[in-house]
User: Fold these one by one.
Assistant:
Number 1:
Amino acid sequence: MADLDAALTQLRGRVVVIDVEAPYVYTGTLAELDTQHFVLENADVHDLRDTPTTRELYVLETRLHGVRANRQKVLVRRDQVLSISALDDVIE
């Protein structure tokens, strides 16, 4: 668990991609984290039901073109998160 906490702490201040159980993808700068939430700033909350784009293609386009922020700040519940990674770790 200590390794996981250290890895998450290293993501603070970086632009991240968060995949959740719901049909949403979150991208933005990881500003804060606690035991219950991730806090993203300058974030894009993308509802995958609004477009025919797949999750993978959307993340790749965000990697290539940058985050299209539609929220100044958003809290993401950690118990809904399937994965989190730095946007610059996305392979083109």
Number 2:
Amino acid sequence: MTKKEVLDKIKKAKLGHKRWMSYAKAIHMGLPVDKDAAPMIETDCSFGQWYYGDGQIFSGLDTFQAIEQPHSMLHNKYMQIYKLKRKPLKTGLFTSKSSAQRKKNEELDQHMKQLIHIADILMEALADFEKDVKEMSDFEISQLS
């Protein structure tokens, strides 16, 4: 694996997770989202496959390790938003449809705020890892594998 290949993976990860954010925002707003944008676990996205596969040669770097938690949290939060948006409203004797919808919207808003915060943390972690990789030579990277 070359330095350029690693930097390309990081770039694609940043773009991929920005795209996921746009999907989450679309879901939140009630817009239709393609089935390919459906949430998946962190090991199934293209970056996750690299991170938990070939990328593990960087597991000795603190900046690499710092990616795992926010990456996992981002996927989990996205899944919560996805499921909540599709969950039927709970109405009852003392709960009107409008109050149930308002409560659901408030919960979705809270999840979106958390998702945005997690995404910011992930982007910082990716930037820190990218900086470390840029400081490494191809030779140093080849010695990791």
Number 3:
Amino acid sequence: MGVRLYFPKGGSHLGRRMIDLAALSRSQLRDWLAESEHAAQADRLWTWLFRRGGRDFADLGGHGRVPVSLLRRLETEARVGRPDVVWEHRSGDGTIKWLLAMEDGQRVETVFIPDGRRGTLCVSSQIGCTLTCRFCHTGTQSLARNLTAGEIVGQVLFARDRIGDHELTAETPRRLTNVVFMGMGEPFYNYDAVADAVRVLSDRDGLALSRRRITVSTSGVVPEIERCGRELGVNLGISLHAARDELRERIMPLNRRYPLAELMRACRAYPGLSNNRRILFAYTLLDGVNDSDDDARDLVALLGRMPAKVNLIPFNPWPGAPYEPSPRERVRAFQEILLAAGLAATVRETRGDDIAAACGQLTTAGQTEEFSEAW
């Protein structure tokens, strides 16, 4: 466990309108190349970008792999999106959290959680958040801006670079197997960029992540739920955390706009929903707030026979948090009620809480100073 500090290179492309190749779909890349009659190079460039983790265009010039005219255009008009790492912090359980700087200096946090032969990357979709969920540290930080599709994909490319996860073989299988949009921000308030990023991540000739291994989680932005299922076909996660409107409005003000009845209707109509493709409902247990036996029974009644899985999350404290985690015995009792009613219910293992990388702990406010002092 330890902290490693890095210093951003700076935005060498600031002031110039550069094409971020990491943000383009394959068809968009082909169209851009066609402007200079290089469309035939699209597949080669795509493989270099995503299969080989290419970054330096000079690498494309060797052995005549691409025409010199294309190489010149790439060097003057394009870039490969990668954020700069400000610091890296490793947990005792193997979780890695990075503070990443975008070209304009704005920062986000990204977390990699290894689990045996699998590994999940938790990516951010916004810098800060528009929502003010009271149990979430990110909610204490106001929204700075949305991330672009390239900045979202860039988090994945960066993580693959750091863990050496490209040029895969049977002897060296991929370590990054799942991506969850559960980091900073509300993904459905940046839907278009998230959708473009999902399409790049899931391209079978690129990063080739199955859409069944991509989860987009929302706090309940109802209008985008059906659209997400229809257009993207990814797993849907719902940050629920309460089963009664009065309580949910208190801890998640978004519920005033999209109450539970409306949210549940959208979930039941989610395209592709089945017992093999369940919705994941996250429920953070707050001591004395939403963790009683009655709360558990309300949750059973709310979800009914919907194909669902409930992920019970012990609250992860942060400085100034207004809540405390529920005792372990209360968590077990809550889970037992759900299981007895036939609901699939698991208790999420807390990972990375020693480096503030656990669920609900991400924020960029004051982080550089905090970890610089620790280092």
Number 4:
Amino acid sequence: MRKHLLLAVVPLGLLAACESTPNPYPNGPGFYGATIDSTHARITYVVPPKMTREKAEDTLLLRAAEDTLEKGHSWFRITSRTRDVDRSQPRSSLSIGTGTTSLGRRSSVGVGVGTTIDLSGGPREVLGLEVMMGDGARPGDPDVYDAADVARTIRARLGV
């Protein structure tokens, strides 16, 4: 009986000892925003699977334009861009394996094939922008965009 208990408790202990990291994007693909102050914001976009990079970048730029307009500003400057791959999502898997047990003088052996099937969907692309919003005359910098013009142009291009 002790061996049965040991066989049941040891795998649970090993499972509990596995290190896991928290997922920074628990809701999956979509936008994650952070307001830095009244004129600065950070927008992160976890790109849905199979979306082209061009469409993802347009979608992120549209979000920056919409945020700028919602906050009552007319233009925004991109102060930094990031591109990363998120590999921290929880890993789900299905495992099939083998096992043995011993009951006093009798023992039994289970024989089978062991395999693991990854169900997590793989890494996700993450794009980010940090923007500064402003009003009045738009600076002549190539990283400064008219928010209304960007929103109109990209909505037409994406068909939204």
